[in-house]
């Protein structure tokens, strides 16, 4: 392991927004911002019946995302949210939490997915306290993510509305492209300090 990675902290600490100016012409267009997306509700949905997906689409007012895609449902009840494809029968619903406790939303979603006439197989799990989301933005964001991840972040490959699970350094991360030069990295809270420090290190090495 490189010496500069051995001292990266893995402790859980508040994540403070950081701005870096990587190597470039020194203009503001090179600025990279690392921020924490706090108060996000995260609900994992596993659907083993097609009827469950149909019901979920009606509740959220959207179609189901295709492989490695993200859709933005339009629902008054759920507000600003996004639905991410994680696997053939697994989805992640992220939304701005209006209340500290997301249990009422989970219970409401479970009730909406049930069918009184037949038994449907699905699971709805609140994982809000298990993961945190870090946003990396700026024209050099793709280059910084590429330094420690095997995914191809070229704009022709990883486009707006795409998502994929991989690693960054030694941490498992769910990547999603929110805007042309803006990425959300979802990671276990216990590894958030490590990820944050590694992103800072990558940003500085781009600058030097």
Helix % is: 10-25%
> Which residue ranges are poorly predicted, with pLDDT under 50 across at least 5 consecutive positions?
1-14, 23-29
**Content of β-strand:** 25-35%
Order of helices and strands: HEEEHEEEEHEEHEEEH
Number of strands: 12
CATH superfamily of the largest domain: Probable tRNA modification gtpase trme, domain 1
Strand order of the largest sheet: 1-2-9-12-11-10
CATH topology of the largest domain: Gyrase A, domain 2
How would the global form be characterised? Answer: elongated
- What profile does the largest beta sheet have? 6 strands, antiparallel
* N-to-C span: 21 Å
How large is the count of helical segments? Answer: 5
Tally of separate domains: 2
Structural class: alpha+beta
Mean pLDDT level = 83
Question: What is the CATH first-level class name of the largest domain?
Answer: Alpha Beta
How does CATH name the architecture of the largest domain?
2-Layer Sandwich
Task: Give the radius of gyration.
Answer: 18 Å
Verbal overview:
This protein has 208 residues and is of the alpha+beta class. It folds into two domains: 13-37 and 130-207, Gyrase A, domain 2; 40-126, Aminomethyltransferase beta-barrel domains (Alpha-Beta Plaits), CATH 3.30.70.1400. The protein is 23% helix and 34% strand. The strands form two sheets. The protein has a six-stranded antiparallel β-sheet. A hairpin with a 2-residue loop joins strand 11 and strand 12 (182-188). It is elongated and about 60 Å long. The relative contact order is 0.21.
